[in-house]
Prior knowledge:
Layout: E1 12-17, E2 28-33, E3 39-46, E4 51-58, E5 64-71, E6 73-79, E7 85-90, E8 98-102, E9 112-114, E10 117-122, E11 127-131, E12 136-141, E13 147-152, E14 169-170, E15 174-180, E16 183-188, E17 199-202, E18 207-212, E19 218-223, E20 228-232, E21 238-241, E22 255-256, E23 262-266, E24 272-276, E25 282-286, E26 294-295, E27 298-299, E28 305-307, E29 313-318, E30 321-326, E31 331-337, E32 342-347, E33 352-357, E34 362-366
Amino acid sequence: MTLEHAPPVSFSLHKRLLRPDEVPHGRTTALGFHPDGKRLISAHMWKAAQRTFLVVWDLDTGAHRVMGRQMGVVQRIGVLPDGRLVTASRPQGDDPGVVCFWAPSLEGQPLEVWTQRVMWWDFEARRAVLRDSNWHLQVRDLGHGEVSFEADAADFRHPFHDPFAASPVAGANGVIFVPGNAEALSLRFDPADNEPEPVRWTLDFDIDKVSLSGDAALAAFVGFDDELEVRDARTGALKWVLTQSERPAVSEAVRFAQGHDLLVVPYEDGGVSVWSMKDGQQKAALPSPPDLHTLGSVRGPANRLGWSPQGHLMLTHMDQHLHLGDFDSGQWVGVWEEPVPIISWQWSAAELLAVGNQDGEVVLVSS
């Protein structure tokens, strides 16, 4: 059921920051506002050398300086309460990632480097789930580095390392693996047990995609024929079977909404459905946006989801459009368009939106 007359959200250009001359041509892969409200950190991928340039911007003047470089593709940027900057990269292939900790001055070489890949992190809780290239898992405090849980998880992955197998997903209290085509495995984080006994269960369909709620309490499984189930992530008990009637294929970005008991399901035509996790019923169905770019009869699917600072708006990134959708009305209420594909975006606490595009630019948008 949808309601009418959702209030529109207007975007206006605040400032366009062009790619610095000293940064090789490459896409803007990640953005992070500094808590002081005066600076923005952007990551620019140099594909030829498989490394990322990190740039600090003055939001008032637009002035910039290159603060450093990091191996791999930087995909996460955050600032700890003590002012240290944290950047996490994902190299190509199955190599470990790199997590770098930079001084509050945002100058000099990294203070500390972890050769691990981030599977999940929460800066408010200062907590991260990481793994190395051998699938040794750790739960670490981002502030001090203490390890509260670790376990070897190499045997929990798909035995044939099938490139089409669903990737493991992590949350605050556990990880979901897909060791077999229709088999799921739940590993819970227990600080008192470094050899935990995982819980396994089998679904009635081969698993294509998995999503885990932030608290790792619920897991959503999508099949290759677009079957969609929500299960208790600890026990595997079935919660909801979500019927996908007359909808196109489900895209990659199925996610649980932060701060809401909702599951957001995007489709290959750019449409989105929103499901309540209280009763398993569809709360809203957003059609394919009318201004979305097309290639013949194929419309671009959502490939990233997020939420505005207010939490009541759904933000989806589709092709060269960045759309805002309203949960309650089931309507698209705002859009920002770039001349080239949008790669990354980040909200500030002051509701300023930073958008990174394929040409290495950073666009500041007011809402």
